Amino acid sequence: MKLQEWCERKALVFDLDGTLVDTIPDLALALNLALAELGLEEVDRDLVAESLHDGLEGSVDAALKHQAAYGLRAADPALRGELLRCYDYHYALNVSESSRAFAGVEHVLARLRRRGAALAVCTNKSQTLSERLLSDLGLSTYFDVVIGAAPKRPRKPAPQPLLEALQRLGTEPAGAVLVGDSWVDVHCARAAGVDCLIHGAGYGRITTAAPGIGRIFHAYSEWLV
After folding, report:
1. Which residues are CB-contacts of 110 (< 8 A; sequence separation ≥ 6)?
2. What is the strand order of the sheet 195-199 is part of?
3. Which residues on adjacent β-strands are paired with residue 120?
4. What confidence score (pLDDT) does residue 71 get?
5. Domains in the chain, ordered, with CATH?
6. CB-based contacts of 104: which residues, under 8 Å, 6+ apart?
7. Which pLDDT score, from 0 to 100, does residue 72 have?
8. Catalytic site residues?
9. In whole angstroms, what separates CA 24 from the centre of its chain?
């Protein structure tokens, strides 16, 4: 099926990090500031990208495994909590400093809105930071619903956040598509009974078709052909 045909769905739900926005510069900076504050070894951007789909906690856990693997400092619950607090603090200060929407995103969103599509964001980033990032980048006006991580709300790959987004949009799963960049998104979509498109240039590094993936695209310009 061509991308243009997927765009005809009643509702499109987008992941945020790695799908709509390149957030790694700010996330990596914040994590390394937090690590330095605690006297820990800095990590590279690839580690942040590979662990991002579990939220800030995923990056913290990956960073602590890096410390332990190189004998720098053993992980413990107290250290994890302190690193997460520092990471969250520094990221909140710089959530949109260097983050940018991927090329063509705003053009595609504007076209979808003109067509009358219902649009939502479903992300494992916190609700507050997701809303701030979208607002700072001028993208919030395109979306009817934003579902981020919140207390008592399951995270992707659980289907509940996606189903909540669709419920608030007034759309059944069969009439929707989830646009993401990772296996977390693929598994979430499958569990919810929703088709899934994958941004192959995102952080999940999915480059070949597999069950549960309707199509892989590598640039938003492909949506406009």
Report:
1. 142
2. 145-149, 118-126, 11-14, 176-180, 195-199, 215-217
3. 13, 145
4. 67
5. 3-22+99-224 (3.40.50.1000), 24-93 (1.10.150)
6. 219, 220, 221, 223, 224
7. 59
8. 15
9. 11
